[in-house]
Amino acid sequence: MSYEEHFSKSDFRDKALAIAAYRKASTSFRPLFEEAVSRFHGEALAPLTEISAELNDPDKNSGEMNKTCANSARRLRVLFDEANTIVNGESPRRGVGALFGIR
Fold first, then answer.
1. How far apart are CA 20 and CA 81, in angstroms?
2. Pick from 79, 12, 14: which is nearest to 45 by CA?
3. By three-state DSSP, how is residue 89 classified?
4. What is the pLDDT of residues 54-65, one digit of tens each?
5. Distance set, CA 77 to CA 39, 53, 55, 81 (Å)
């Protein structure tokens, strides 16, 4: 799903503004941003199967599911921050490097 499709189908109050800003963005920005959003989307979907299985397994305890969720949240945060650096006009590598103290 593209960025524009995501916002057009969302309940986000300012979705028209988000779409308009995206359309006005430099064409050199869009491929990097779309790639970052796609990676985020893929990573967001990945743990759903695992979490669903843990919810349906009576032998699993909540600590295991909490760990799965926490690990997923950490990975998603890195990808979100990468997309955010692109939005703010920084190099994604520079932004992600900053997360790990590498510049």
1. 22
2. 79
3. coil
4. 888 888 788 888
5. 12, 23, 23, 6
For residue 11, the one-letter residue type is D
- Among 53-62, 75-84, 89-98, which is the least confidently predicted range? 89-98
10 Å CB burial of residue 36 (0-12, 13-18, 19+) is buried
pLDDT at 102 over 50: no
Distance CA(10)–CA(8), nearest Å, equals 6
- The tokens of 64 are what? 């295991």
Decide: 15 and 7 in contact? Cβ < 8 Å: yes
Q: Does the pLDDT at position 16 exceed 90?
A: yes
Among 77, 68, 72, smallest CA distance to 99 is for 77
Return the SS3 of 28.
coil
Looking at residue 94, what is its pLDDT?
Answer: 52
How far, in Å, CA of 87 to CA of 98, rounded?
Answer: 15
At 78, the amino acid letter reads V
